[in-house]
Structure formats: structure tokens, C-alpha cells
Amino acid sequence: MLWTKHHFDALDSTQDEARAYPPYSVVVAERQTRGRGRMGRTWESPAGNLYLTAVVPDFGDRTPQLAFVAAVALAEALADFPVRLKWPNDVLLDGRKIAGILLERAEGKVLVGVGVNVVSAPDLAIYATGHLQGRIFCDILLDRFLKELREAMGAFQEKGFEPIRRKWLAGAFHLGQDIIVKMPQGTAAGVFAGIDADGALMLKQADTIKRITVGDVALMKDMK
């Protein structure tokens, strides 16, 4: 698997541009004017950070698990830093979000969007965001990520989700802690008990496990 890179000074969104490219293409922009994250949220995209979309094949019912594949790959690319993984698709440093991943399907392929705060972080009230303080160059991080993504996807194809799940859990933030999950239909509280074989969050409530597929996670203590 070889990646074909396409670099741009500025784009509305690497996700939108990447729709025109075949699998194993990578679209990179120095900045985005209409970057976006999960649930249509704006992803502020000034110059100096890393913004990319990797185009990969569609994996059918297993496609949602690619978010964890990408998160594990990004954590490996950032192995010089003590990063942690937050369900479902964030990478944290010192408890602050430094990167996010966005998965979108497009005509038989999947767009894996990644934004990493390398030199600056957006001022967003709903997130505690941070950045890498310029301690790595974007081009080096890009090459590391693409190498790790290639390897993680190979493992995913050959061995399934379980090895990826184990790696993700090894770096998981909030595991075993009291959390609140904000979902479209309301909120739920319990102990973060891990992720299941599909990547859904397992929330322990008394003697039961609630399975959650969409939501935002916060520590219970942070909500008080």
C-alpha cells in the first residue's frame, strides 16, 4: 500500500477535496477555511497545524472501526509524547484534546480526516484543547502517521478488530472511571468499562452494561 499525497496551501476542507480521489490518496492542506469535526462541529484550521484526509477502501459493516484504527496509528506516530485516547475519536495530551478524527463514507471509499494541533489550539468553550507546542514538524508527523496507518490497516485486514481494540484500550483515557456520556437522546452516567467488539462504549451501571455508539464523554467530577 503506497500513499499518493496531494498538498494544497488552502482548502475549504480536506474531506471535501478528498472525495475526488481514489483509495490510498492523501489530501493535505496548510489551512482550511471550512474545516469540520464530528456532528458538523467547526474545526478551526489556522496555518501551522496538520490537516489531512486519507482515502481508504470501505470495509462494509466494519467501517466504523476505522476510527479506532486511525486513532491507534496516530498515537503510535506521536509515541514521543504521552498521549491518551478518548472515545470515540480524540487524542489527548495532558488531558487536553490535541487531535480529532472524522470518518465519512463516499461512494465505495472512506475518508479518514485527521486534524492535529501542532502549534496552536482553538479557543472552544466545549473542549479543553491543547497543542504540541511545535515540538514536531508537520511533515515528519504526516509521514509517521501514514506509515503507522498503513501498518494498522494491514493488521485490521488480516487479524480483525481485536488487536486494534487491545491497543486502543492500552492507551484509553477515563477507563475505569466515573463518566457522563452526552448522547443525542440524553445523558447517561456510569463507569467506563471499555469498548466492545464493535467499538461501542461499554458503560457499567450497577449490575448492567449499557452499550453506547454515539456520544461525548466527560468525567463525572468535571461536571460538578
Describe it:
With about 220 residues, the protein is an alpha+beta fold. The protein has 2 domains: about 170 residues, 2-Layer Sandwich (BirA Bifunctional Protein, domain 2), CATH 3.30.930.10; about 45 residues, SH3 type barrels. The chain is about 20% helix and about 35% strand. It contains 4 helices and 12 strands. Helix 2 packs across helix 3 and helix 2 crosses helix 4. It is globular.
Question: Main traits of this protein?
Answer:
224 residues; alpha+beta; SH3 type barrels; 2 domains; 7-stranded mixed beta sheet; 4 helices; 21% helix
Secondary-structure blueprint of this entry?
Blueprint: E1 4-11, H1 14-18, E2 25-32, E3 50-57, H2 66-77, E4 83-86, E5 90-93, E6 96-106, E7 109-116, H3 138-159, H4 162-170, E8 178-183, E9 186-195, E10 201-205, E11 208-212, E12 216-219
Parallel strand pairs: 1-2
Antiparallel strand pairs: 2-3, 3-7, 4-5, 5-6, 6-7, 8-9, 8-12, 9-10, 10-11
What is the compact description of this entry?
The protein is 21% helix and 36% strand. It has 224 residues and is an alpha+beta fold.
Give the count of helical stretches.
4
- The helix content, as a percent range, equals 10-25%
Strand portion = 35-45%
Say which CATH homologous superfamily of the largest domain is assigned. Bira Bifunctional Protein, Domain 2
First-residue to last-residue Cα separation: 48 Å
Spatial sequence of strands, sheet with the most strands: 1-2-3-7-6-5-4
From the 3D structure, determine the CATH topology of the largest domain. BirA Bifunctional Protein, domain 2
Main sheet characteristics: 7 strands, mixed
Uncertain residue segments: none
Our count of domains comes out at 2
By DSSP, the count of extended strands is: 12
Structural class: alpha+beta
As a whole number of angstroms, the C-alpha radius of gyration is 17 Å
CATH class of the largest domain: Alpha Beta
Order of helices and strands: EHEEHEEEEHHEEEEE
Mean pLDDT across every amino acid position: 90
Broad shape: globular
Q: What CATH architecture of the largest domain would you give? A: 2-Layer Sandwich
